[in-house]
């Protein structure tokens, strides 16, 4: 098999959202295939692998080829109640016994935060580089995942706004993003675990050199700014960055795997019927350092 990566929609978005063929993720890939995927990530930022019926062990083995994995300290279920290993984020609406969560279930309500535009783990000091999301079970309709190209969003900003935002540093926390939805019942332990961390608002990609906005619903403050003014600017930038021209929607099939670069994209889940199972497993590659420790 020969690996090939082509744009899903060459006319509308030639350099965003690529489709990868010619690999079987159940097998150990060659170093040159891994290098081709990394190059595809640098160009497309989001890659789709169709028909990859993998298990967690295979997903972990493939993911580890790209660097150290995060542990799922951002999940609300920790310890003995977890359904999945600590290196797999549980992106599902089922409990340990595979029962669909009740409407008022705390994990379910917390997970609704994934429907806000975000970048994974921007609330961690060293945030996420790549995320890999594997569809195990999907609902009959709804539940798409959408991605926004934050490089294109940067390129489309006027010069005054670029000059304004370029030096800014934001505070990110899951307490902020869940607060947007009125979810505030955090334990003391969670408040400590998810204390806010600083992140640059504008980043430079280490390989391509392109600048991009680094936004997420987790961002709730800008250093040196009054909070309402900060949140208004963040809202305004998010609205800009998520215009239809910068966005793609992925309609899931079972055994799809999507891989995205959190440094240059945002994503969100869309609504689906609450009584149907949606079960996706996410592995996440750590970035190399906090954004403030990375060059601009
Ligand atoms: C994630 C995420 C969106 C979705 O896995 O990080 O935000 O559609 N998922 O489930
Ligand atoms: Mn996410």
How does this model look, in words?
The protein is of the alpha+beta class and 296 residues long. It has a single domain (4-293), classed as Double-stranded beta-helix (4-Layer Sandwich), CATH 3.60.130.10. The chain is 24% helix and 24% strand. The protein is built from 8 helices and 15 strands. It has helices at 31-44, 56-64, 106-111, 150-155, 159-165, 174-180, 188-193, 227-241, and strands at residues 4-7, 18-21, 46-49, 89-92, 128-137, 145-149, 169-172, 197-200, 202-204, 211-213, 219-222, 247-250, 257-261, 265-269, 279-286. It has a 7-stranded mixed sheet, with helices on one face. A 3-stranded antiparallel sheet has the order 12-6-14. The chain has a 3-stranded antiparallel sheet with strand order 8-7-11. The longest helix has 15 residues, at 227-241. The radius of gyration is 18 Å and the shape is globular. Bound molecules: N-oxalylglycine and manganese (II) ion. Residues 91, 114, 120, 131, 133, 145, 267, 269, 280, 282 line the site of N-oxalylglycine. N-oxalylglycine binds at residues 91, 114, 120, 131, 133, 145, 267, 269, 280, 282.
CATH superfamily: Clavaminate synthase-like
Largest sheet: 7 strands, mixed
With helices defined by DSSP (H or I, 4 residues minimum), what is the helix count?
A: 8
CATH C-level class: Alpha Beta
Mean pLDDT across residues? 97
Strand residues, percent: 15-25%
Kindly report the spatial arrangement of strands forming the biggest sheet.
Answer: 1-2-3-13-5-15-4
Oligomer kind: single chain
CATH architecture: 4-Layer Sandwich
Over the alpha carbons, how many angstroms does the gyration radius reach?
18 Å
Query: What's the structural domain tally?
Result: 1
């Amino acid at each position: 098999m020969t690996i090939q990566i082509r744009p899903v929609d060459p006319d509308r978005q030639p350099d965003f959202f690529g489709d990868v063929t010619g690999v079987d993720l159940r097998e150990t890939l060659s170093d040159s295939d891994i290098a081709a995927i990394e190059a595809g990530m640098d160009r497309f930022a989001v890659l789709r692998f169709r028909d990859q019926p993998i298990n967690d062990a295979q997903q972990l083995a493939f993911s580890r080829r790209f660097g150290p994995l995060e542990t799922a300290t951002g999940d609300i279920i920790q310890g003995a109640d977890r359904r999945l290993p600590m290196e797999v984020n549980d992106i599902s609406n089922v409990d340990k016994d595979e029962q669909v969560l009740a409407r008022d279930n705390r994990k379910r309500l917390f997970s609704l935060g994934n429907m806000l535009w975000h970048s994974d783990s921007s609330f961690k000091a060293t945030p996420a580089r790549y995320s890999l999301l594997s569809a195990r079970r999907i609902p009959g309709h709804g539940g798409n995942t959408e991605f926004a190209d934050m490089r294109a969003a940067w390129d489309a900003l006027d010069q005054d706004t670029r000059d304004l935002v370029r030096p800014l540093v934001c505070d990110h926390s899951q307490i902020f993003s869940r607060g947007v939805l009125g979810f505030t019942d955090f334990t003391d332990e969670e408040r400590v675990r998810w204390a806010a961390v600083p992140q640059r608002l504008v980043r430079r990609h280490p390989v391509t050199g392109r600048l991009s906005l680094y936004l997420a619903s987790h961002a709730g403050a800008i250093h040196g700014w009054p909070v309402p003014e900060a949140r208004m600017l963040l809202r305004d930038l998010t609205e800009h960055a998520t215009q239809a021209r910068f966005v793609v929607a992925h309609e899931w099939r079972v055994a799809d795997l999507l891989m995205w670069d959190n440094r240059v994209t945002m994503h969100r889940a869309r609504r689906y019927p609450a009584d149907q199972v949606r079960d996706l497993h996410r592995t996440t590659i750590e970035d190399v350092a906090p954004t403030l420790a990375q060059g601009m």
